[in-house]
Write a structure and sequence with these properties.
Elements (H helix, E strand, L loop, with lengths): L8 H11 L1 H5 L2 E8 L3 H12 L9 E8 L2 E11 L2 H25 L2
Antiparallel strand pairs: 1-3, 2-3
Length: 109
């Protein structure tokens, strides 16, 4: 039995993106790591952001997961067919993330 390999957030994101069939086919990608005060808040943010499905999954897609080395860090992996679509997608994701974190500040214990 081989021991588990610790990966950096970037390496883990790359593995996750390679395992997603649509994301692997999209040539432009970006991985963003967002730290949260607790692992629970990072998981809540990932769950809330993952609810919205992409309008055009053949042109842009995003995945959300906790960093395998630090559960309090949210990893966002975005891929798109063009740089313009990637910029637009990431901008939308970050705007949604701002809303999520503002809500957490107001209502989280």
């Amino acid at each position: 039995m081989t021991p588990a390999v610790k990966r950096t957030a970037t390496e883990a994101a790359a593995v996750e993106m390679d395992n997603h069939p649509i994301q692997a086919a999209l040539p432009h990608s970006l991985s963003v790591s967002i730290p949260f005060p607790t692992a629970d808040l990072a998981r809540i943010a990932a769950a809330v952001l993952a609810v919205d499905r992409p309008l055009k999954p053949t042109e842009a897609i995003a995945t959300y997961a906790a960093d395998p080395n630090d559960d309090a860090v949210l990893i966002i992996n975005a891929s798109a067919s063009s740089l313009k679509m990637l910029r637009t997608s990431v901008n939308s994701i970050l705007e949604q993330l701002i809303s999520v974190t503002n809500t957490m500040v107001e209502f989280a214990p």
